């Protein structure tokens, strides 16, 4: 990906939002791991997801975080659920918010999806709590 495409306003905005939600270490790892093969994908998600959807006015990062977690859980995207549970430290979504989102998943997308999401969130919370006390 050439430098010109990284200089678009949407890309720069997306990178700023992505870093504010996922944290610099996560974004740095993703960028460092990018190859010529998947660099266009990294660019796409930075512009489209983070620079367009997450940067829209009207909803807070907390609200977007809750909706994102519910959708990822409903779709069974376990790694993304874990990543976005960790991101709640930056978005302001509380553990109670996550619980409520996963209760909705249970009713509207199925108990197995919610059960899996609760399990993942509990594991991530345990790691976060351990790191906070270290």
Automatic annotation (TrEMBL):
SUPFAM superfamilies: AhpD-like. Keywords: Lyase. One of its GO terms (molecular function) is 4-carboxymuconolactone decarboxylase activity. Residues 41-123 form the Carboxymuconolactone decarboxylase-like domain. Its EC number is 4.1.1.44. It is an enzyme of class 4 (lyase). Gene3D superfamilies: AhpD-like. InterPro entries: 4CMD/NDH-1_regulator, AhpD-like, CMD-like, Decarb_PcaC. The keyword Lyase applies. The keyword Lyase applies. Pfam families: CMD. This is 4-carboxymuconolactone decarboxylase. It comes from Mesorhizobium abyssinicae.
